[in-house]
Structures are given as structure tokens and as C-alpha cells.
Amino acid sequence: MADTAIGARPDDRLAKELESVKVPVITAGDGAAIGYIEGALASGFAAGNRV
């Protein structure tokens, strides 16, 4: 099993900033959690279906 990059972290700064001014946000992909492309695609698909 391959590992993710050392020190990689989700970057949710934009989501937090938007939420602070009451803009609805759905995070997906590496904004939500560091992972593989399959997970990013699945979370993006799920986010799109919630809109």
C-alpha cells in the first residue's frame, strides 16, 4: 500500500473563511481529507448530488 505525501494536510482555509461569513460550503477532495483520486472523485460526486 502506498502512503500519502509526508506532511500533507487538507487545505480547508477557504472553506473556513467562507463559512465565517455565512456562505454555505461543502468540502470535497483534498479540501476535506488527503487521499487518492478515487476518494476525491467520490467526495466531489457526493457533494454535487447534495446541491
How would you describe this protein?
The protein is mostly helical. It is built from two helices and no strands. It has helices spanning 13-20, 37-50. The longest helix has 14 residues, at 37-50. The radius of gyration is 12 Å and the shape is flat. The termini are far apart. The model has no long low-confidence stretch (mean pLDDT 83).
Topology (SSEs and partners):
Blueprint: H1 13-20, H2 37-50
Give a brief rundown of this model.
This protein is mainly α.
Low-confidence stretches: none
Structural class: mainly alpha
User: Helix share of residues?
Assistant: 40-55%
Number of helices, where a helix is a run of at least 4 consecutive DSSP H or I residues: 2
Task: Spell out the helices and strands N to C.
Answer: HH
Report on the biggest sheet.
Answer: none
- Estimated share of beta-strand residues: under 5%
Give a quick set of tags describing it.
single chain, 51 residues, mainly alpha
